[in-house]
Every structure is written in structure tokens, then in C-alpha cells.
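#help-structures
NK: newbie question, is this the right format to request a structure? protein is MFS transporter
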Amino acid sequence: MPEVRRRAVALVVLCAASLMVVLDGSIVAVALPSMQAELGFTSAGLAWVVNAYLVAFGGLLLLSGRLGDLLGRRRVFLAGLVVFTASSLVAGLSTDAAVLVTARFVQGVGGALASAVVLGMIVTMYPEPRAQARAIGVFSFTQASGASIGLIAGGALTQALDWHWTFYVNLPIGVAALVLAPLVVDADRGRGLRTGIDALGAVLVTGGVMLLVYGIVETGAALPLGGAVFLLAAFVVRQARARTPLLPLGLFRVRAVSGANVTMVFMVAGMMGFQFVTALYLQKVLGLDALATGLAFLPAPVMIAVFSLGISAKLSARFTPGAVLLGGLVVVTIAFALLTTVPTDGSYFLHVFPALVLMGSGAGAAIPAVMGLAMSGTDPADAGVASGLITTTQQVGAAIGTAVLATAAAARTAGLASEGARAALASGYRLAYGLSAGFVLLAAVAAALVLVRRPRPVAEPELCVAGQAR
């Protein structure tokens, strides 16, 4: 197989597997009522069908990325696919609530192993700047649109078949990726475990991030959040002193890396929280069913595809990735500002559709830019941990956004219950959209301050030698 074609097939395999992992976080959302009815979940227990996955996935991403650097990224990717695919089968066959929640936790473990190293593999596979920008655009499409596609697929599968198929759908994708990846993805040796894995650092950061995600999804549980702060602070101290740190703190001296990760937290907090709120608005206020709700999100992934699969890379080459990121974030902020006006008797095409088009356009431009910046200036030997880091901040941002927006909307709705159920719900969702806009605006401020570089002053003639400034 010609090299260009082999790399293209490898990119498709990696991105398809990554998409499978991403959409699994949202594909079950519209199927939760069916799971509750069949398996007898309590309201609190039902939340753990989602939370068990998020806690394991978010907590293990950073460790998974470093394991890829040490053991070989392809090896870790394949191991993650095996775990994820097998646990998907167990989840689909579940007839007991506890078994389903346990399978979801194991899915999170496999998802972390498989997805944490993908961006690092893509950057290594495409070292040329233009080709790399296009490849990152394809990967970014899977990250940005996965949740929306998950909602569409979840609604279709639940309504046409049953909730079990929201897990069975992973099986053919996982098996195909396991067969093809060894054929088209180059093996890499990694540094080897003999260089040291910093076991204490791994325990501290995994426990800290798991407690952080748990504290957030449990809407601000004080004890887990306090424990997370303690463990993560201890992790930073450990990394500063360790001979072979799990996360080299020198990564944060790279302006693009540190700025991209901060921007990602705020950006995803707004975007992922928005999807949760919009699904509720469409069903509880506009009265759409599960399938129609999923299809209503379609404009967002379509526009994300249009921009991330070509336009974003061209804009970055014409301007700079930082400028494209800032422009995309401004467009997303405008989209959320429009949604703060949705009425109780609203119309999907009048009040929601235009915002989805704008949001998809802005996200499709911004996400490839921030992904590329997060990997720029890093040592190839640290590509796995840099990939795991940006994916970790993405998950933490999603947990923060969903928790904050859901809590704020519920509180506003409860306070206005006397005005009628639909009116109170619509008011709560408008507040949540305002908070989404605020999160993305913070991301834009961070990008403007850190990632949008001002042009350097032209050097004086006497300081130039052979056409190059000293």
C-alpha cells in the first residue's frame, strides 16, 4: 500500500475509534429513561450510568498518555480498544443495574487508554505542517461533533430498537479498528518502563482527577473537591522533584501548550453544558421526542465538519491558529447569546436552528486551532502525555460546564415554579445559556491574552546578518 494511502487509512482508523469513545459519553443520554424502567434504577443511581464512565475516563487520561510514551502508543491504543469493546458487550448484555454501572466504569478505563494517545500518534504520523493541520482538523471533528452524533445515534437506536444497542453499536467499530490498526499504524517502541513511570505521581494525579470529576458531577461535594485539591497539589510538588516525572512541568513553560489547555477548559465547559441544556429544552419545553431531539442537533456537527475538515486549516495558514481560535470563540459566544432569548412557546427553526449553525461554525474553526496549539512546541517523546493532558482538560471542562449549568438551571426553575412548569423551565435554560456564553467568553479572553501573538517589530538593518536577525 502506498505510504500516503496507508497514512490516510491509519488516520481514519484512529479517528473512528476516537469518535466511538467520545460519542459513548452522550449516546446513553436519551436512553436513560428506558434503562431506569427496565433495570429499576433510582434517580440517584441512574446518574452513575453517565458518571461512572466520566470518572474513570477523566481520571486515567494523563496516566494513559504517559504509558503511551513509555510502552508505545500503538500498544496502549490497542489495549484500550480491547478493554472498551469487551466492556461495551457486557454493558449491552446487562440485566442488573450494578453490572451496567461497573461495565460503564471499565468502559471509561478502556476509553482513556485508547483515546489519550491518539492525538500524539497523529502528530507523529504527520510531521509536515500542512498535512498535520489537515489531520488535526479531522481528529478535531470527531472530538467536537462526537457528543452531538451520540445524541442523534442514541435517539435513533433507542426508538428503533432498544437501549442495549447504544452499547452494541461499539462492537463492529471496535473489532474493525483492532484488525486494521496493526496493519496501517506504525509500531513505536516507547522509552521503556526502565526509565521510570513515577508510580507515586500516577497515584496522586489519577486519584486527584477522579475526585475532581466526582466532586463536580455530584454538584460540588465539598469533601471530594477538597481531597482533589490536596492530591493535585501534592502531584505538582512531586513532579517538580521526581527524576522521571509523569507530567514534565516544563511543558507549561511552552506558552501555546499552557494557553491552549486553559482555553480548552472554559471553551468545553460552555459547549458541553450547552448540549445538555438544549436536549432538555427541546424535549421539555418544545415537546420533541428522543429521535427528533437527536436529529435537531444535526446542524451543529454538519457545520463542524465543514469548518474543521478544511476551512480551519486554510484560515490558520492565512492568519495564525491563535487568531482563528479567537474568531471561532467569538462566533460561539454570539450563538449562545442568541439562545438566551428562547421563549416558552419557541420555534426550533426560528430560535434554535440559527444558533446551532453559528455554534457549529465557530467550534469547527476553533477546536482544530486549539488542538494544534496544545501539541506545538512539545518534544516528540512527550507527545503522548501532551495528548493526554489536552484530553484531560477537555473532560474536566465538560464536567464543570454540565454541573454548573444543570445546577443553575434547576435552581432558577425551582424558584419560578409558581409561574408554570414550562415557563419556569425556559427561564432556567435561558440562564444556563447565559452561563455558556460566559464560559466561552472567558476562553476568548484567555486566547487573546496568551495565544494571539502580536507581530514582532522589524529588525533594524544593522542588526541583520545574511538576512537573519541576530
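mod (FA): yep, format's fine, and the C-alpha cells are attached above. The longest helix spans residues 383-415.
NK: thank you!
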